[in-house]
Amino acid sequence: MALKKLSKKRVKSGLEKLIPISPEFYDTEKDEDLVADKAVLLPFNAILIISQWVAFCVLMWWYSSPANNTLNTTIQTNWDYGKADGYNCTPMMKDQYWSNTFNFETCMELAREPKISTPAAATDTVVFDADKNAWKYVPYAHSTKAAVWTDIIFASDGGAYDTTDLALADQTKFRTDLAALNTCGLHFFEQPDGPDDGTGASVWYIKKSGTAGTWSDLDTPAAQQTTHANFCREYEEGQNKYCKADSCERPDVNTDFSSSGTAPDKDKCTDDNTYESWNEWCSVGYGPTGNEGRDLYLKPSSGDDKPSCYFNHSHPLLENVATAAGFASGAAMVEEMSKPEPNSESSAVKQARKILEDYDRTKTFTACVITEAEALKMFKLFYDKTYHCQYAKNAAPFGCEASTPLPISQCFSLAYANSLLLYTVFSAVCVKIFFAAKKEPADEIEIGGMMMEKPASPQMFPPSSPGDRAAARL
Question: Are residues 52 and 129 in the same domain?
């Protein structure tokens, strides 16, 4: 007897239409062929679908996160290349002065604001240098080096300025703004002492006093004079000993070694043409302004130059000029500026010469003094303008890198494909479990992958009448 194939059509419920049971859970298209009861499969299938979308969302977030970004690198000449696209550009070489390799943003994070405490504290960034009689700004906690003047700050060939004119204009404005912050009208932002350690940078000192000051008349101009005995010269035996006005052999005007003198001094200077009158040592060709102060600072041993009777170390004028110029004392100024070749690169020498351009021996000089508060304001302007980190903008070439996120389309594709993969694998595992647990109905057998009804057992005694046989066929 032939086996009869079951062909009952499935009717889907409303819930199943909203949450269709995956085909994997069917042996065939019959409800009777589900691997488990619908009451179990419908909620389980809902969990699977929800899990797939949860997996999709999680994977979408994962592929969009920085963990999957791609690293792009390039070498550029601009410090802010690709900033809007997330590029971070760092100098590829160390700065000559600071020995730093960090970029502008890192410099700004590490640099400390100018700060002065009273009394001085270890955390102060503006420090007074007694030897220089000036303040300096130490921006970094990891370095004792002070902020510097350097041409790199206003370099037109770097990344901070597009043209030379813009760089010069910014530098001029900055100096003008600095000068406006103190009553002396000084900025000190220049290269005063030459290169520092061969790096082309000079420590920026704001001095207590500079070239600014006032010249005023003396009530008693003679107060600047000194005696002949204090600065006379000991000549060796010869005509200079008797003919020169500054010779210690001629202590006063009454000592006359010329032919018009009196015995026993008469004719000790044998040539009246070379004989100098006693008053000549006070006016050795200097005139009222002292040849820009040479009579103020020259020593008797300064070559062929003679000292002046106005050269008086005890008078405040010498100390005032020396202090304003940056010398430790009047004696230090005399020592340096009396040399045959003074250090022309010294800022103190330059400032002293600048001050003495208006020198008049009948006047005195009062230096303009910059206060601590004014110096702090000047350093704060330097900090606020970010010039202390400007070198990092002009330190080309720069190594630039950016961590770029994956395109949204790629993230969507990867998330969908992998969530579908997870769904398929999990579904297959669950179906396997359900099949293993399923029991076959007693009236069905599997033939060739199809569930078929078992054939009825043959009757031992078939119907004897035609009616009985027809009824059997029904």
Answer: no
